């Protein structure tokens, strides 16, 4: 349009790095981070991130160079989310549960020039570098993050030592293009063929703002870090808390008691976690609980939360915000936006409504359930299943070094999640399963999520996961792996009959195994492990050979 111009006065590339610059000015003297007895202000965090960036440049880091980190939720992990991108480099946060073999694969794939390592994870990193040296791979520089800042390992550079000698007035290398990469995140299902998801400065900015909005994270929140910062960069809240001048309460490890203690001590207002974290909190022994100083908002995602757990959290005084997304959508992509008129509904119905995945949040242009072949939207009948697909500014740039996988996932102009779901009459989506997890028994599709929800409503069940078990007649039948609450004993048949009273007969588990469930560090049950166990168990028969 005539008279319209674009220049430095009205256009600056979006980047969450701006959040820290503003926080240092607006909230400079306020507390930014607490870790045990260690406390920093936003002015100090700003200076430390600048020193970190200056050190990285001195070590040769430049635009698009990858800097990896293997660390728990400690101050250095938070600071690296700003310090690395300040250099024009790309931060790669590694899953703390990876073994040396997987870390070596990811370091080679990412071509990381430096790896920062939490001192408690040093053996894993050392093992990874040893494996890399065996095939003459170029090794990254290892920088140790020690707890006290003491130089206990003379063979390595040390984090605090680097910061002390660095320039606190580093000139930030701002992105010229807001679509430049800011981080590289490997998906939780990583195998020998890694899928590295590329985030941009623009996407990180927009999803940070979106998460603050739908999570109702207002100015100066107190955020308890129960979400791993390596997972989707803490759902983009590593940057988001800075935008609001909040206090980051860092935790290396935690139990239900630790959560209640920190909430009481620091007057926590917000936190996050997978449904397993919610379950841990809800099942914390009464003697280990403390009264909440106020309503604590807890964001949950990563896996569909059972309605029973949502109900129990509400009874404890938590306000659960249910979001859904994938690594490829910067974490949260949808939110089950709560409507005031639902407050008057019976408790069970409220919990079922909140367990839905909802609709796209303000930063995501669109979410839909589509037929994966025709790309037509499924009817909003709550029954017809299709694939969950996303379109918008908070979808990844693509998979690092894998253009074919990127184009395959973007086929048809939408990001194909691989999740199966239905659309309810009000437009809200509800997950039914991952496409690889759906059980097909006698031609009927069985949603493991629905079966798991029934299991969770049993008073003896702490955790549950359902997979398909081979069946010579039906093809496969539901097999439930269950962890019981402490001190409780029930028989498998009791669990089966309980489910049959709540579900269609064909959906109820035909076999129940009591054991601890294998988990990823983000709280997701490793169903591929359980599928292998169920497969090894073979087909289920009644006595005399007849099928159940």
Summarize the structure.
The protein has about 550 residues and is α/β, with parallel strands linked by helices.
User: How much helical structure, as a percent, in the residues?
Assistant: 25-40%
**Portion in strands:** 15-25%
Q: What sort of overall outline do the alpha carbons produce when their principal axes are compared?
A: globular
What's the architecture of the largest domain in CATH terms? 3-Layer(aba) Sandwich
Secondary structural class: alpha/beta
Our count of helices gives 17
Average pLDDT over all residues: 92
| Total beta strand runs | 26
**First CA to last CA: what distance?**
72 Å
Rg, Å, rounded: 24 Å
Largest sheet: 9 strands, mixed
> What number of domains?
3
Return the CATH topology of the largest domain. Answer: Rossmann fold
Family: Belongs to the ATP-dependent AMP-binding enzyme family.
GO biological process, one term: fatty acid metabolic process
Enzyme class: ligase
Domain AMP-dependent synthetase/ligase: 21-400
């Amino acid at each position: 349009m005539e008279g319209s111009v674009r220049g430095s006065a009205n256009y600056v590339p979006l980047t969450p790095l701006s959040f820290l610059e503003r926080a240092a000015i607006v909230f400079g003297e306020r507390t930014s981070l607490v870790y045990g007895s260690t406390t920093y202000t936003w002015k100090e965090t700003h200076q430390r991130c600048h020193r970190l960036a200056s050190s990285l440049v001195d070590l040769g880091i430049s635009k698009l160079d990858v800097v990896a980190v293997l660390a728990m939720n400690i101050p250095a992990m938070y600071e690296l989310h700003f310090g690395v991108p300040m250099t024009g480099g790309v931060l790669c946060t590694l899953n703390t549960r990876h073994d040396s073999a997987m870390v070596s694969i990811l370091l080679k794939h990412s071509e990381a020039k430096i790896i920062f390592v939490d001192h408690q994870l040093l053996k894993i990193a050392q093992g990874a570098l040893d494996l890399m040296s065996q095939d003459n791979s170029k090794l990254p520089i290892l920088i140790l993050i020690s707890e006290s800042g003491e130089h206990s390992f003379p063979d390595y550079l040390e984090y605090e030592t680097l910061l002390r000698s660095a320039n606190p007035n580093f000139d930030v290398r701002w992105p010229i293009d807001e679509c430049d990469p800011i981080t590289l995140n490997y998906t939780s299902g990583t195998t020998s063929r890694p899928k590295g998801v590329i985030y941009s400065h623009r996407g990180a900015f927009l999803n940070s703002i979106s998460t603050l909005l739908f999570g109702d994270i207002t100015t100066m929140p107190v955020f308890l870090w129960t979400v791993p910062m390596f997972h989707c960069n803490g759902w983009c809240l590593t940057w988001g808390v800075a935008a609001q001048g909040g206090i980051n309460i860092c935790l290396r490890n935690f139990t239900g008691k630790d959560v209640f203690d920190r909430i009481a001590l620091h007057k926590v207002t917000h936190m996050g976690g997978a449904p397993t974290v919610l379950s841990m909190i809800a099942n914390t022994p009464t003697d280990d609980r403390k009264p909440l100083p106020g309503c604590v908002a807890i964001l949950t995602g990563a896996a569909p939360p059972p309605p029973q757990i949502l109900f129990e959290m509400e009874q404890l005084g938590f306000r659960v915000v249910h979001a859904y997304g994938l690594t490829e959508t910067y974490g949260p992509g949808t939110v089950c936006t709560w409507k005031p008129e639902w407050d008057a509904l019976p408790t069970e119905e409220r919990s079922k409504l909140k367990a839905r995945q909802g609709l796209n949040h303000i930063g995501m242009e669109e979410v839909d359930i589509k037929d994966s072949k025709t790309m037509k939207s499924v009817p909003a009948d709550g029954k017809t299943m299709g694939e969950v697909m996303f379109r918008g500014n908070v979808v990844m740039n693509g998979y690092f070094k894998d253009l074919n996988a990127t184009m395959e996932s973007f086929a048809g102009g939408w990001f194909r999640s691989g999740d199966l779901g239905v659309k309810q009459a009000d437009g809200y989506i509800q997950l039914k399963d991952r496409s690889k997890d759906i059980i097909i028994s006698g031609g009927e599709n069985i949603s493991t999520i629905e079966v798991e929800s029934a299991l969770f409503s049993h008073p003896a069940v702490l955790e549950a996961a359902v997979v398909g078990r081979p069946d010579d007649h039906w093809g496969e039948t539901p097999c439930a792996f269950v962890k019981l609450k402490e001190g409780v004993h029930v028989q498998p048949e009791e669990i089966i009959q309980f489910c049959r009273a709540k579900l269609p007969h064909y959906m109820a588990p035909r076999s129940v195994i009591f054991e601890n469930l294998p988990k990823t560090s983000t709280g997701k049950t490793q169903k591929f492990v359980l599928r292998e166990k169920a497969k090894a168990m073979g087909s289920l028969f009644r006595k005399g050979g007849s099928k159940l």
